[in-house]
Specification:
With about 400 residues, this protein is an alpha/beta fold. The chain has helices at about 55-70, 85-95, 100-115, 130-145, 175-185, 225-235, 250-265, 295-300, 305-315, 325-345, 355-365, 370-385, 395-405, and strands at about 20-25, 30, 35-40, 75-80, 125-130, 150, 155-160, 200-205, 220, 240-245, 270-275, 280, 285, 325.
């Protein structure tokens, strides 16, 4: 599976700062110190309805992580998956009377278009669950050999009790885990499981549903969590720098994935930091496909909204915050974009040397994009009110906003 084209990231003078970011596992800020190559895995879409603003906000957060790292002169090894076979996809295809493969391909293509328009940097490896199956099967077989997996009516489950570090990602109690498991794709009430929280590794073939040869596992398809584990371990290895996604993935997805990997490798932790973006709401409720209260990037683009304004709207909220999309949020972003473009369109302006450092300082402090936007606002206001004689300033601002915030002026 291919990703989308990369937009050029301008080089800036000086050196970026190391990133301090909130780690869900420890509950506090950690300073990331990757080697020459920073490694990040971000969970991708299930392609049956793409790309709503909740998606866009999440991928915007981890695009900022990459830009901060690139500014430190590191390389970034970024991996993202596509869950291109799963119950929600199959259910949507059946509801709409379309082929599930065609639906997945259509929505993935639309996601690529949206990511390109929003200037999100692409992953080096963009891997679908289906293409990962040859690497998933041996991992499930290995977990079974280790005594960490068991069969139930042909399905293979992971035993959470096989990992002494289970629970150290989300830090939730058993009751909260059970509730979230039921809400987020688990089956805690299925009779016969050793532990209600045990997640499925391999689903035996169901009539009328797609399935693949699983060797000793029989025909079937992979569970959700083992998919990401196989892809991450294959392309990044254990102990990579950041595992990212929306806050609704902390449990069960990232918790279970970490346990799978830790049992498979005997190492801990799977990732040095678990970083989670907040949820975007509409009309008082979190945007979700089940509720149908979605605002799509593609629809905004068809309505003539500049993708740079969409990106500014996302950047105006701290990535960890839960916030609500409104017409005013978008209008404020459109106004800000116009002000910035007017400011950099002049032949000269006030010095921007300190602005670059202000943006760097804000982003290195837990991706504080609102503070970075405020710094650019102040420069634009000085340009409007006082002007200046630095002929290089507008160019510096243009390059800094592009390189660090992903906004093309």
């Amino acid at each position: 599976m291919h990703a989308w084209p990369a937009s050029e990231v301008p080089a800036l003078p000086g050196q970026g700062r190391d990133l301090r970011i909130h780690d869900t596992a420890t509950g506090g800020l950690v300073t990331l110190d990757p080697g020459p190559v920073a490694r990040i895995y971000v969970c991708g879409i299930t392609p049956y309805d793409a790309t709503h603003l909740g998606h866009a906000a999440t991928y915007n957060a981890f695009d900022l992580v990459q830009r901060v790292w690139l500014d430190t002169k590191r390389q970034v090894h970024y991996v993202q998956n596509v869950t291109d076979v799963d119950d929600p996809l199959l259910e949507r295809a059946e509801r709409d009377g379309v082929d599930w493969v065609a639906l997945a391909e259509k929505e993935t293509a639309l996601f690529r278009e949206d990511m390109t328009a929003l200037r999100m940097l692409p992953p080096q490896h963009y891997i679908g669950a289906v293409e990962a199956i040859p690497g998933i099967v041996p991992l499930v077989e290995r977990l079974r050999e280790l005594g960490a997996a068991y069969e139930l009516e042909g399905d293979i489950y992971f035993s959470v009790e096989s990992d002494p570090n289970f629970g150290k990602v989300s830090n939730l109690d058993a009751a909260a885990m059970r509730l979230l498991s039921a809400e987020r794709g688990g089956d805690p009430d299925r009779p016969g499981k050793k532990n209600p929280l045990d997640p499925m590794l391999w689903m035996a073939a169901r009539e009328g549903e797609p399935s693949w040869d699983g060797g000793s596992l029989g025909r079937g398809r992979p569970g959700w969590h083992i998919e990401c584990v196989a892809i991450a371990l294959d392309h990044l290895g254990m102990g990579f720098d950041v595992q990212g996604g929306g806050s609704d993935l902390a449990f069960p997805h990232h918790e279970m994935g970490a346990s799978h990997a830790q049992v498979l490798t005997g190492a801990f932790p799977m990732a040095k930091a678990y970083v989670h973006a907040g949820m975007v709401a509409l009309h008082g409720e979190k945007m979700s496909k089940s509720k149908g209260n979605l605002v799509f990037v593609s629809q905004l683009r068809r309505d003539g909204v500049d993708p740079a304004a969409i990106r500014l709207a996302l950047l105006s909220h701290h990535y960890r915050a839960d916030w609500e999309w409104t017409d005013q949020v978008l209008q404020d972003a459109v106004t800000r974009l116009a002000q910035w473009r007017a400011a950099v369109s002049r032949p000269d302006g006030p010095s921007a040397d300190t602005l670059v450092e202000e943006i760097r300082a804000a982003l290195s402090n837990d991706l504080d994009a609102p503070a970075a936007l405020a710094a650019v606002d102040r420069w634009a206001a000085r340009q409007e009110q006082e002007g200046g004689s630095d002929t290089g300033a507008p160019g510096v601002v243009t390059r800094a906003v592009d390189a660090l915030l992903g906004v093309a002026l």
